[in-house]
Please model this.
Amino acid sequence: MGTILTNRQLVDAPPIAAQRYGLFTVARMPEMPGRVLASGYQFISDHCGGAALYDQTCLVSPTKTAVEGSDLLAGDPYWVVARKRCGTVGRTAEEMRAAVNQQLESAAQSIVEAALWNGAGITPTLSTSGAAIVTPLAPGAGAAISALERAFYAVSGYVGVIHISTRAEGALAYAQLMDPGDRVAGVYRTRKGTSIVLGDGYGTTGPADVAAAAGFTWAYITSQVTVWSQTIGQPDPRMTLDRSANQWDVVAERAYAHAWDCPDVFAVQVPLAAPATAATPAVP
Model:
């Protein structure tokens, strides 16, 4: 309708949208040191662990309970790869390099979220973290998240991170846990200050990959999360050109590794229905 000529004209593509909310919004994201890329990482979590009330009197000096050592947390890097093939006619090498980098950028967050949740061969993952299961005292997403926070902050004085699938977004919003007006530096937080990661790459299974009850999803809480990344040197597209088929064959790669600060992890089942009614599944 309304055209004079039948040959459509090539114009610049519309601007790329902002990256969605997720793990990369909440996590610390430093550059990965080269030695981590080669052999993985380990660090001592000295600030984890507890203390105890001590009652000193003139007549009694109770024994002070010691915490034996500090936890050594470890993990390994993994790769996210994007590959793009396209005819050489009308496309330059630099256009193809930019295109495959954008392809990698678009997909990386969901892939890293899936790796952190229960990625095969990935260390660490939420499903293999030995998370302690929490039982809420009442039905509803609000009660489940409250129980999760209570369990975590009984052993940690530092702000944690809740990991939950986007499937539960409506239930969390109904429980008034996700008011866009309450975002701090772009991050959803509970009233206690716990960051909330809504992961499109997150699964719904729980510890040891156990399935959630019908109408529920599992959620975890950890200490603060770090995601290291390092862009791998990209070959010149002219060097990877498939000359037999006259096709660009370009690759973009980035290495990632992730960790949470302390070993304490808790898990709870969160109902997906909102609000909690008689028709809502009972909390297991």
Q: What stands out?
A: Residues 68 and 274 are 45 Å apart (CA to CA).
